[in-house]
Every structure is written in structure tokens, then in C-alpha cells.
Amino acid sequence: MSSLRPLPGKAVIREVGMRDGLQSIATLVPTERKCEWLRNAVAAGQGEIEVGSFVPPKLLPQMVDTAEVLAYARTLPGLFASVLVPNLKGAERALDGDADLMLLPLSASHQHSLANLRKTPDEVVAELGRIRAARDASGKKTLIEGGVGTAFGCTIQGEVKESEVLRLMQALLDAGADRVSLADTVGYADPNSVSRLFEQAVKLAGERFCCGHFHDTRGLALANVYAALQQGVSRFDASLAGIGGCPHAPGASGNVCTEDLAFMLEAMGVATGLDIDALLALRSEVSGWIQGEPTHGTLWRAGLPRTFQPGVAA
Amino acid sequence: MSSLRPLPGKAVIREVGMRDGLQSIATLVPTERKCEWLRNAVAAGQGEIEVGSFVPPKLLPQMVDTAEVLAYARTLPGLFASVLVPNLKGAERALDGDADLMLLPLSASHQHSLANLRKTPDEVVAELGRIRAARDASGKKTLIEGGVGTAFGCTIQGEVKESEVLRLMQALLDAGADRVSLADTVGYADPNSVSRLFEQAVKLAGERFCCGHFHDTRGLALANVYAALQQGVSRFDASLAGIGGCPHAPGASGNVCTEDLAFMLEAMGVATGLDIDALLALRSEVSGWIQGEPTHGTLWRAGLPRTFQPGVAA
Fold first, then answer.
1. Which residues in chain B have Cβ-Cβ distances shorter than 8 Å to A199?
2. What are phi and psi of B106, to 5 degrees?
3. What is the pLDDT of residues B241-267, one digit of tens each?
4. Is the CB of residue B278 less than 8 Å from the CB of residue B45?
5. The whole model's pTM is what?
6. Do A2 and B263 touch (CB under 8 A)?
7. What ipTM was assigned to the predicted interfaces of this complex?
8. CB-based contacts of B227: which residues, under 8 Å, 6+ apart?
9. Which of A43, A93, A253, B102 could form a disulfide with B94 if both were Cys (CB 3.0 to 4.6 A apart)?
């Protein structure tokens, strides 16, 4: 056996293609197709799916039907359905819809935060506090995740200090986040910086550290996942067919590709509960809906190795 | 700092695009362009290049000018020029041409070996012994590398046992190989299997273990390099623009992409001596020569991060 520390025995791939993927492309996918996607994803073993985003419809018309998609998701047994919320208003809609989890993104880059959210990171922390109060007052069980983005740098500001990322993560926890996560929003991370920052984040947040979100803009997403796995992280966002892209790099990859990540994890013996053949079939179906949009990934073309054996959960 | 073991401070990317890349595509690149490639690669900091293969011209017309390309390579100061040789006959041509190194590939998969080389792996070991005798008799300084391929499995045979890979590696060393290396010829490796096998290979061969050769068929090449780096390996084969492909998976990626690998290493502080901008310019030039052939990689599209700082050799 390797001298490296053992990897987690199982991991969760949280599907974000319906949110981070679809919001980044021009094609509008109709609600009934999103529901079909959900149904087939659950059938393929996907237990956690980010089904949409409660942002103003004017900003992201692709997400206008999030309430309906969430309502449908609630009918699928065993599915843990999350949504992205940019603020208290979005959070109220997530609570109304009985989402299992709502993710409030925070940008650790002050300049990115001001440009994209028109708030400083600390104002976002304060908003999380208000969301926590609203959740507690509602009596709902919806969990609150504070997601620290641009955690490895930013296309506007450039460097983002690790100390600032960790300070904001602690502030989110203090303000009432049930969980926190880290995102390499623009594909600046490398396995070394991932090891370093995730090790500190896991130390800081313990069990409340829940997820790594990697973009494959510069091809390092799977290597970065592997580095985070070595720090004990066992939940990763991913997008079917790598749908998405990067607004700052036209044609570049989006989130790490779900089916490629599933292959890497299962090949290493990290059980995901996913049926990779079913995922590949779903990839093919969804790709057909968004023809002309860039898709990514390699497994769909190469197929599984002859020797492939899925991981078995301990 | 991370609790993981430190990575090597520097690493060598051995360019194999002119051999493994060009031999896998239909387009014939003229000799003068290969020489231009060599010249510009050296100018970009590439110090080790596999310039061709001494195989029968009927088998690989793309490699027919290997002797001329090697002769040109010998005129470039500081370039360590290697060639692939399938047998003693090829080795004699490598010695005639004063190659710095000749790589004899061995397939650890018996079925692959019989199908591709019409020899058992142990017959290839015996051939290496004859090559060693010829080299010693010639008085030349050409190094002999025994490369163990299909080390992680094979599309024909399926499983290849680690014990058999290591037995053959030891046999190559015993037969007189100056160096040995491991290749994931068909893209079956994952970071876990890489950690495990490379750890044992490094233990077995020590300083004589020289290189990891990864194909990106299923997108894991960079993650696999990172796993091998953690075992102290510091030389990797790579192909500019990821030129190549996989005969068993049409359209699939070939070797790990040189410029993406250079980015990953430098971003992690592992110095390569490479000028990434110059590599990207060369990629663009070479891609133009082979229009219509698949190329791969991500960095050319996304560009370097704003925060990028090259590694500095200790």
C-alpha cells in the first residue's frame, strides 16, 4: 500500500450542471427537460443536486423556473435538493420551496465581490446572519451553506490571500452557516495550493467543511480534487458533460465534469454510488438538448477501461 | 504548509510530441519543420526531446527521417536527444547517430507484447541485453532506457499485475538498462494505482528510475503526474498540444499536454526551466502544420492566471 494517507472510502458528487452549468450557456432548457434530467440523475445514483438559483429572472433567465424545478425535486424520494441564493430574498424563496440546502456564495476577492454582488464580503457575511435568522424563524430544516469563492485568486483582483479566505470562512460560521465550502471560481488553483488551503479549511471548520468546487479552466480540476481528497474532503461539485464555461475565458471548460470525476473516484476505490453507464447515457441526452454549446470531458469518448471495477463503500 | 511530503523542487518535461505524437497522426510533418520544432522547443527551454523512432519506415512513414532529425538535434547545444528503438537493429542506428539516449519499450502485457512486437516481454528483456552489449562494444555514450508500458492494464489483455511490471523492470535493470521508466500506454491509470506502483518502482530502481509516461485518454494524466510527483518522480513525458491520440479510442487524447503540464508544475513551484509563453507560441505554430488533426489541452485557450508566478529552481 502507498505511504500516502488513505483517501476517504466514499465521496459525494454534488451535481451543479443544472445551476452553474445551465446559467453559463445561452440555450434555455425547458422546465420539463430539467425535470427529466433530475429524474434520470437520481436513477443514475445522484443523491445531491443543485437544482437552480433564486436570482432575479432578469439577471439569469435560465433560472426563472427554479421554484418549479425545486418543487419537482421534492417529489423524488431520496434526493437532497439544494439551490443557490444570492441574498435574503432568494433565501426566503428557498425556504418557501423547502429546499434541503441553500448555498450563499461569498467572493473572497473584494473587487470580484463588489463587481458581481455589489457588496463587500463582510456585507455578505451579515446577509448570511439575516438568512440564518429567517431560517430559524421559519421552522424549516433547510441547511445554510456559505461558499467562499475566488478562494485561489481572481481575474479582477489577482491575488486573494489565504488568511482572508479563512477569515471569511470563520465569519460565515460565526454568522450561523451550517456548512462552509471552498470554490476555485476561475480555475486558478493547483494541487499544491489546494492541499495547503483545504488542510487549513478542514482544520478550521471540521465537520462543517462540506465541499470543494473546482473549475477545469486550465485542466487541473481532477488533480485538484485528488489533492483535496488527500485532505479528507469527500464532497465535490461537478457538472454533467462539464457544461458551463468561464465568462473570463471564452470556450474554456466549466466545472469539473461529473462523469470523469465519477470515473476517477471509483477507479481509486472511492465509492460514489453512481452508475457511470447511466451517467454517460444522461450526458448524451443532455448534450443533445444544448447542441452547439461547448461540452467537455473525456470518458464519454474513451469509455471505461476493460479492467474497471467500481469502488465499494466500506 | 501542507502535511504532505514536499514535491521535487524541479522537474524535467521530456517532449515526446515529435515521436509519440507525430507517429499517431496521419499528417506527415516534413523534416525541415521537425527541425524548426526542435529549434523552437530548445529556445523555449526544452532540454530533453525524443526526436523520433528507429522503426522500419514501412511501419511508420512519419518516422522515416529520424536519422536526419537526430543529426540536426546533435547540432543544438544543450539538447539531450533521445530516440525510441524497437530492437537491436534500431539501437544500432541510434548508436550510429550518437543519440544521447535510446528507449526500448517493453509491454508488460504479454498479449499486447505479442500483438504489437511479436515478442514476449522476456524476449524484449533479452534484446535489451544484446543492445547493452552493442552499446558497450561501440564505445558510445548513448544511455539505454527500458520503458515498461501497459503498466496499468491493457486494452487486449485487461489486467496487468503490478508484480509482473516490477519483475520485468528488475529484469531490464539486470539485463543492463541504465534507466527504467513506466508508461500508462492506454490511459488506465488513476492517481491511486500510480501512487502504489510508482512507490514500488522507485524503491526497486532508485536513481535509475527516470520517468513517468501518461496518456490523457480518460482525463487523468495531470492527476496521475501529481501522484507520481508525490513519490519523488521528477521527469515526465509530454506532447506539445497533446498531439497523439489513442488507437483504441478514436478522438481520445494522447500524451499529457506539454504546456498544461508545464503550467501545473510551475504553478506548484516545481521549476521546469520552460518559458510557457514560448511553448504556447510553438503550440500554435505546430498546430498549424497539422490542421485537421485533433489537438488537446486547455491553457492555450484560457491563458495563464493573472497571479501566475513560475517556479524557481532551488
1. 2-3
2. -125, 140
3. 999 876 666 666 789 999 999 999 999
4. yes
5. 0.96
6. no
7. 0.95
8. A226, B191, B192, B194, B195, B198
9. B102
